[in-house]
Amino acid sequence: MTFVLRMWWREVRSSWSRLAFFFICVGIGVAAIVVLRSVVQQVRVSLTSEARSLLGADLVLQSPRPMTGPIGAQIDAALAAAPAVRATTSVVDTQTMASPGEGQGNDQVKLVEVRGVEAAYPFYGSIELDGGRPYSHALLKDHGALVQPELLAALGVAVGDEIRMAGQRFTIRGTIARERAQRNGIAFGPRVFVDLADLEATSLLGFGSRATYQRLAKIEDEAALAPLTAELRTALRQEAVGVRNWRTLEDRIGENLDVAENYLSLVGFAMVVLGGIGVWSVTRVIVQQKMPSVAILKCIGATSGRVLSIYVLQVLTLAAAGGGIGLALAAAALAFVPAEALASFGVAGVSVTPSAAVQGVAVGLLVSLLFALVPLLEIREVKPLLLLRAGTAAVTKRRDWRTVGAAFGVGLLLVLVAMWQAHSVRAGLFVAGGLAAVACVLDVASRLLIRAARRLSSRGGFALRHAVISLGRPGNQTRAILMVVGLGCFFVLGIRALQGNLLAHLSDQVGPNSPDFVVIDVQADQVASLREVVRPFLRSPARIAPLMRGRVVAVEGREAQLRDRDAVREVRGLSREFGMTFRSELEPNERLLAGTFWPGPLGPDESAAGADTEVSVEREIARDAHLTVGDVITFDVAGQRLTARVGSVRAVAWENSQNGGFVFVLRPAPAVERLAHNYVGFLQAVDDPAARGRLQRDVVKSHPNVSLINVRDILDSVRDVLANVTFGVTVVGAVTLASGALILAGAIVMTRFQRQYDAAIYRTLGASTRLMTTMLAIEYAMLGALAGLLGAIGALALSWGLAVYLFDIEWRPDAALLGAGVFAAAAVVCLVGVAASLDVLVKKPLATLRS
Hints:
By secondary structure, the chain is an alpha+beta fold.
């Protein structure tokens, strides 16, 4: 063992500099795992420890309708009968438009989310105000308001000024620095806190309004929390009331973040595998270069096991160094994470966590050892006779059972590592299988392309012919470089191509017939006056349609037999709340597939074959729920039941939904018009930004309860999200490309002696430095172009598959993007290759020949 350790130390000292490139690649992958796991772990600790603060209570009951009448009495009785309930309070969330007070601000309007609260809110946590001021409900009394800072900037107001909401004035009495309470769904604007009594005095909670009602409860005995939650869920299962507690929220947050941590760690694992490809490649070169040394060691009595141990220890040492580099890179990266990016999660800063560091380094060590093991096994075949018969005692290349078994074992262990990182057998198999499939495809394609390029060795100039010959030179690492650089191009070009398709699809949707604004919460007596207000600012008449929100509670059909809400919940896509309308004609974006569309409204004395009215169903819901013409659907609309017989099935071109897209369209009938409903408008405004601003201000002043949603702003937000996702994946691709460049530079360093000998021969035969540089530039440009071509082909297939089968949009190949990617890959690889070979180009041939 002393001999093994001494030889290991000598090998490390002599070769660490040549191997640094490859273990930096491993370090990058380790850093990716450590950064991702550290961030998610610390966010999880923060969120799960503040689960009560996120809810503001121990128990929450939530409904889209006021919890009054029989439902309210049932809830009150259940809470009053539970001795563990110490206190309850009510919260209401809704949306409206806010504008500055008279003579204040910049005369703009902004869609905001209003939360009305009572004095007891919140039971846990607190609303943190700017300047460290304590929150008190007294700040909301007499039409006070607390707002988020972005609203001040949007309206040009300050603390002490007034804002107008729903025709009433509210005084800004503080700015929210941090607010932990959950939001329901997508945030359409900054949040504003007001007193619940003041909110109820406005027109925002009137007939047919869009609001979310919550009852919050504080539980004294934590052991009673789960039984009370189960009891309320059972009692209210037939009502549109959801029940959750802080324990279930904590579990759900933890589970979601666990999944995010594990799946994101697979990204780092994939990057470590790419570094492992470089380790495998350079280990093969080491074995070829160390054959004489191994033969000498065997001549003086060293066994194959001892020699193998020397190089295994060397690989582990350098892999540990790569892990150390990865930890340093991770610590540096976490230090630069912006504080504002983590503030919403309640995390002030992030650092490397011990468990993430252990996992990252362990994966780096395992992958490095596994990729190096198979090439190192060739040491067993080196014979001492190699020193005496150098020309005839080459290493035998037979594949014995040990080599095959080792290769199989390495593959199996890599799959197990992938499963460990994902905490999922299925995900690990998919990732490992995907990497193996991509690696095989790239390897086969690279062999075919290199063979095709060899035809150029018999034609063209001297530099071109010898550059092509160099691609197949032993130890040139051509296939490994093609694989890694090709994967980097595949990531970058594929995601960029998909982004272009998605943005083109969004641009098509925002066409000349698409609405610019959606107007919601319009009451029946406001339709005519709203049309008059908006007419000067529109390029086409306003389209205003009735809107009601309802749930399917039963289905009586030939194929579907759903007797109650519990049965409906089991059907995919049918259990959610739907926005519905009623009209007597099809829209231009709709096409009838089955049945007939009614010619007009039902009269007072007519019926729809025993039902209250008829309904037209969109084809996807009809397919998923097995609905056919003639079936009877029972809807619950704001607590009232409505039966409708399916009269037709229609296809909806959602991308051209000029008047909104509705899954269920009802036939107008007296029973339908009696239901709670309001109206929604779709406005196509003129292109003048000033006129658009006046449109919003005039609507808010004349109809204070009405809210305008700027569709183009929402699409811009979607574009921002898409750009962020694209940026993240592009970073992965860029890091992969950087790993490819490092592997290329490392391969050049490893084969420097052979290149110096070749260069000396070329120089002796009269080649100039310019000719040598041209040869190298052509060789590496061809290598980069081949890698870029492989990546571009894969990116083309990826963008097509995702566009057609995942996003169901039109696929548009971007030849310019793919061509630019191939050119950029060729240029980058050419520059790296020539730069890493400068010492070969400038060295005099005599010194090489003498050596």
